Amino acid sequence: MPATDDYLRQPQKMHRWFLGTTVVMFIAFIWMTAADHSREWKDYQSVFFNIQIETLEKDRAEFSVSEANRVIGRLEEDLEQAQEGIDASNDKIDALKEKYETAEAAFDLMGRQVKSTRAQRDVARANYDLGVRDAVSEPDLAKLKAIFDEWQAKVDSEELTLQGLSSEVDSLSVMLKVETASRDKAAERLAAVSKEKTQQEKRLDELSPSADGVMGLINVFKRKIMTAPIVDGFNGQLRIQQDWLPDLEEHLGMTSSARFDRCRTCHLGIDKVAAGNIPLYPHGGDIEELGHDHKKWVEEGKFPHPYSTHPNPDLYLTATSPHPTKDFGCTICHQGQGSGTSFQNASHGPNNPVQEHDWKEEYSWYDNHFWEYPMMPKRFEESQCIKCHHNVVELGVHPEFGASAPKVYDGYQLVRTYGCFGCHEIQGYKGTEPIGPDLRLEPQTAEEAERIASDPNQIAGKMRKVGPSLRYLASKVGRGWIEQWTENPKNFRPSTRMPRFFHLSNQQDEVAAEYQPVEIAAITQFLLKNSEEFEYLEPSAGYKPDAERGKTLFSQKGCLACHSHGDFPGSDADFGPELNKVHAKLPEGADGFKWLYTWVKEPTKYHPRTKMPNLYLDAYKEGETEIDPAADIAAYLLKGGAEEWASIDVDESALDDMVELFLTDVLTQKQFDEFMETRDLSLGGKLLENNLKGDEVELWNGIKPEDLSPEEWVNDAKWKELKLNYIGRRTVTRYGCYGCHDMSGFESARPIGVALQDWGRKDRTKLAPEHIEEYLHVHEFDFLAVPLQEGEDVEKLLANIDSPKQFKDWAESRTEDDSVASKPFEEMVRANERSQILGDIVHALEELEPNEWTEETYEHAGKSYLILLLDNESMHEKVEMYVKRGAADSFSDEEDREHAMSVSYMVENLLHHGRAGFAWQKIRQPRSYDYEKVETKDYDERLRMPMFPFDQEEIEAITTFVLGLVAEPPVEKYLYRPDGPAGDRIAGEFLMQQYNCTGCHVLEMPKFEYLAELDGLPSAAPGEPVNSAEAMALLHSLAPPRRVKVPGHVTQLPLEFSGMVSDVIDDLGETPEGWRNFVEAPGEDAEAKKAAINWDGDSDPAEWEFYVTLWENLLVERGELTSPVYPPVESDAEQVVVSLADDNSVNATVRPDEKTGGLVVSIVKEDLESTLKPESVTLTLDLVSGTQEYPLSAEGESFLLKKDDLPEGFGSLKDFYGSISVKFPDVHVTPSSRMGFVGEQLRSAHDGRGGDFTFWLVDELAKTDKRMDGKPDNAWNYVAPPLVREGGKVQTPWLFRFLQNPETLRHMTVLRMPKFNMSPAEAQTLANYFAAVDDTDYPYQEVPQRDAPYKRAMNEVFHEKYDETRTDDYLSESWQMFQFKGNKCIGCHTVGGREYFSSAKPGEPEVRGPNLPRVEDRLQPDWTMMWIYYPKWATPYTKMPVNYPLDKPSSLPLFGADPTAQSRAVRDALMNHAELLETQGVKIWDLPAKPEEKTNE
Amino acid sequence: MNDSSIKKIAFLVLLPVLVIGLCLTGAGCGGGANAVTTVTLKPATLDSDSVEGTTTGGGGTPGGNGSPETSGPGNLVGRFIFDGTAPNLSPLVAKGATVKDAEFCSAEAVPNQSLLVGEGGGIANMFIYLDKAPKGFKPEGGLSELVFDQKNCTFIPHGLVVQVGQTVMVKNGDGAAHNTNMKVIRNKSFNQVVNGNDRNGVPLIYGKPEPAPIKATCDFHAWMGGYHLVVDHPFAACTKADGTFEINNLPAGEYKFRVWHESVGLLERSLKVKIEAGKDNKLEQTYSVGSFSKL
User: Fold this and answer.
1) What is the pTM of this model?
2) What CATH number does the domain located at B61-137+238-295 have?
């Protein structure tokens, strides 16, 4: 049987199957298409288009309500009229046109003919040339030439005709244009005005085609079609926006691929900015707050995600910013999945559990474990900055962008300050390739430093150990003190940064109770035993230190720039330790004194790498009395006397247990037993010395028992000491003490902790949360505190309280009493988490069982608090509560909310095995990961991380920093490693912080803002050379002005400037106490300020007069006001009112002048009492013949354009097509001007940068030192100088030398620039830093005044101008400026070979300036010149007078009594001082005769 | 003339008219023979802050804003007397001492003038002044030029009353240069060198009144000190060596004066003085040693 279809299948059944599958496939196709078409991002795009349409509509609405429509109407009328005029003379125009066309045709024809004739001529020329080449006979050649000539003549004549025709066409064209000029002009004017309108309509039409007309309908239809499924794939309006970033690769497992960011598909408005980088769609809140009505968004100008524009477009996304979208995309900074086009796929990262919950509801968000790089939540977004910004510093301090990533910068600073890198190395290089921030310890020995320096593949670390050296510890403190300090450093000094290693949560069991005291005693014993011999310095024999004088010296010599002390409550520096109790720790009597004396006098003797500088506290003589400041200060600090510190009595059996614990790792139990028996670690020579090279060396003394008698052999005391040394060394090694402290014998020891350079990518499965979830379920404490009143008896108060509930009720009942509020407690706890609360109280808490409670009293800021500690909550429950409150939005303030959300985030993250949560808990409670694990661990396996006193905010900052350590740098071009000035600024900033330069020096003056009357700004002071172009040019180049641009009509504006308060006076003319509080109180409103400072004095702070000395050059540019396009008026109008300002507040009124027939313009401001005084007024008329400017002349309060000056044909105001520009005078306020205002006008005041100590010292000196006359301005001459514009002032090489070896510069200052413990390279960097900040050329600076060409030129001028017959030269004449009798310079300076003469007794006022011979090496010539012209421009408080006022002839006859020439001569002589002193020497010279006395007395 | 002054005049003119009107209609005023007073406006009117009540008869003029004409202004003639033994202050620079520019500066002893008690206990260099120009007071132009001289490294005079806009010529009678540095508060800084033997002087003009006398120093010779009281009216004086002073042409009324001495500061914040027209009103104040305890 042949095979048929039927044989294989049943056709009918198959057809049914076929039909069925077709239907299914068709449905599937429809479904797929629909699913593919309906994408989340399309909805966002549609909404965004609607937003854009709304915005345009809004603009258009605003536009049409304005004058424009009337203007357009009026212009259209004009156009119509002009057209009518043309129509009237139609015949003439037609005739002209015809003529023109005929002429043009003739011109064309002629043109063509000329072309052909030229071609013929060219042929003739070629023929002739060929004839010459072929050497044809003379007559033939002549014939050819004749033919050429003939054609040439023809060409000439035709060209002439063509020219004639051309000029005819031109003239006809002009004639035609003249005829239609008025219409064309009208059309042009109309076009100009309608342009904006048309453009808007066009843009709108692009977004949403209007259905006007047939074309409109077609367009609308087209648009509809283009959005249809499938078709929309062909260049539809809605489309995926993609940024391709081939250089910023994405690492996917073992491979990498180019990055594609499609974020802008939904975030369409993210980079949309208006001119000047102003966000077009500013973010205004969540969609829940703003609602879903996009019309409302547009109206209010507030937009939700994903429509809003990125904040800070100056820094991000825009083409002019350092991070343009096309180069950076989005995910390199934010992370997330760039290729995702849905909310979920993009791997957005919720910022807290409340948001997470909302996202789950709204977007079905879930934590996608499969994407390695989920978007960083907002709280950690800054972490990514350090991928490229390895220096980190620029993220906190930047000249242009300020603190752009403050959180990660804070984290970095905390890591730096607390020395985390001592244990956790943060390696910034792979070989020499940078991979991230580099925080490594510097080489500890000279050999290591040399080895690294000579290895081209290594870069040395640069961080110093953060703790003090322990190398000579025995000379400084005793056993008892070390023990209690080691046990809990906060016990002695609550503000210390040293963390706590003991009594933490994994040390609460019996084993720890037994071992801890042994460990502490052993560390102490080991440190003391390991301490080296210290060489002390001593004051001269018989010197009697004066503690009272020491106190003054302590306050003045700069100690308080880094340290604080209770005797000086106004100072709160925390760069170095607080010194209140330093006397209590040092040994009693002479030993303690000697140590402190040595330390204060020469810190590097005790600690070669200390940051403490050498303050040059050398002994000096005041009259006959010898004063040794170091001794006095030491005596002052030791005044409280030493304290006794009990030491631990070590339990020997516990000690033996510990020895066994550690030693059995090395020895067998049998060997150990034998050792304990014989006390000989070599076990009778069975073990070799080099088997015992570890910490066991402490037990090995190398002597064999048989060499000694039993009595001489290790006796019991010695034995115990050996064991303690061993345990001590083990413990030091185990806890890594050498990570922070310099210790003998540990120079090459490695950090003990996990390296952190790629911790941000740490494999999450390798984090071991294990029991932590359980721990968080049962552990969390809470506390309640009640402020106590003086003399209250705690026991009595608590007599009736038996439960936490009762305590809470009681606390609440007390809050009704106004002296007790629970709020301060909360604040106190939060503010003091770093102090004893965490140290002591948490300790107490950790001993509590769940649901137990206890109470403690706690002292803070002179107040006592009763604190109830509860351990009845679980962290887990607490977070649940936080999340509930967050969802209900029931937090009392933003700070509380942020704290709760931060904690909740971290806990949730930890429970999901996140890195952030892990780090948080690790820093917060470092040993909690040992929860219920100590039972199964040996004592030496327990976690060792100590507890640092960080609060939640600090932990988050550190976590942010650590999460950014990813060791996967983008390609080179993305790394921010600027060289030149920008790089030097960064390197300099790093050192500024390292050496606390800003402790003494002001780098930026404080900033003030007050409501200024522009007319009332100060003008020049007497003698100020504001009229000298030369002086002003110097000022502008050395102190580039802060430019404030204001519209010309503004007469009052909030003006910001930097300066220092010089005087504050109340209505009695006296300085009121408390003014500082008024300045510092936040807010703008004087009433609010008054309330904030709780002022109860007599006078009204709102009326206090403030005088702030301006430290910068201020230029208020009042600019020009120009009216918009002319406003045509009705023909019978009497005046034209032109609006000059956008808000219509200033108008110019133009009317014909009845008297002269010209135009009168007056400028009127609506709300102004006085009239505006413009500098000039210009009228711009748009005439048919072109635009013309007419300057007006002032005529009383108006401005006039005379009839004669008016353009021809100007008939009436109807012809007034024009605009008016009004220029207002700029206001220039020079440095050192006193900005005076009353308290009411003060808007805000901000600290500048640096100089906290100096500001304090200035106040202190003004109060206590008679020489200051009570004036802070005087006191500034006695303290560390501000370094504002230092780079433009000093020569960089000099600054380098000075930093290395600071000489005495200012003779008046009460303190000296100390010598910092810095390397030459560091000094160079700092010197460069200042030059870079002030945009000065460096490192080499020229002093042309020392060069021959300059001298030659000056000589020529000198002889020519003053006396041709003289033989002496310019410089020797200049030298005379220092050499005449009664010379001014010599009054205060050593100069010209004559020394400063001092006659003042100590403590009496004396004004002495720096020695001038060093000027030539120290100062820059331009700066010196400006200084001589007007010293206060550079340093407003200076006592240096104006010596040669430029505004009048000098009374000195030299250089033709020209003050400018004299000033220059002084500068040039200073710049050549050494040479002149050598060649000219000292020659006292008599001034010529006195001028006659004026007789009008 | 601005709006507000026009209004003020209108008010002053209208008010009596109104009063007269009211009186004519018999509403109040008692209707006595004195009911109508002829009032003329004075050129310098006084501030109600400084003047408490006026010696006027009837009329009901607005307090302070234009009192009726009386028989003219009065003078204040007074003296400040020291109660106790005058301190014997040693000179700032002894004669012949080795100091800077000794040939001028210690040619004579430089006296310590921080408290000078003259014959009969008069205290010299006391400043007495009104803190504010009386409202509406218009300073007369043509102020004479003052001289602030420096001789033997001493300022002469030690205390000087200066009016705003008045020129002070800062001169130098020593061979050595001085730099005159005024410790201004409200005014522009002045710190200029006056060359040796400069008898023409450097002009110093103040633009604003100062709240209290300001110190003049010379930073070359740091012991030098003098005081300028800068006011925007003529109602201020500095006592002479015998402790006397005179303030003339004060419109009658009661005033609160401030009294200031360099070693204390403000001695009186509001010393009440009643000025009767056309008289030399006497004032004699005594200060005990205790008042100068800050010395």
Assistant:
1) 0.84
2) 2.60.40.1120
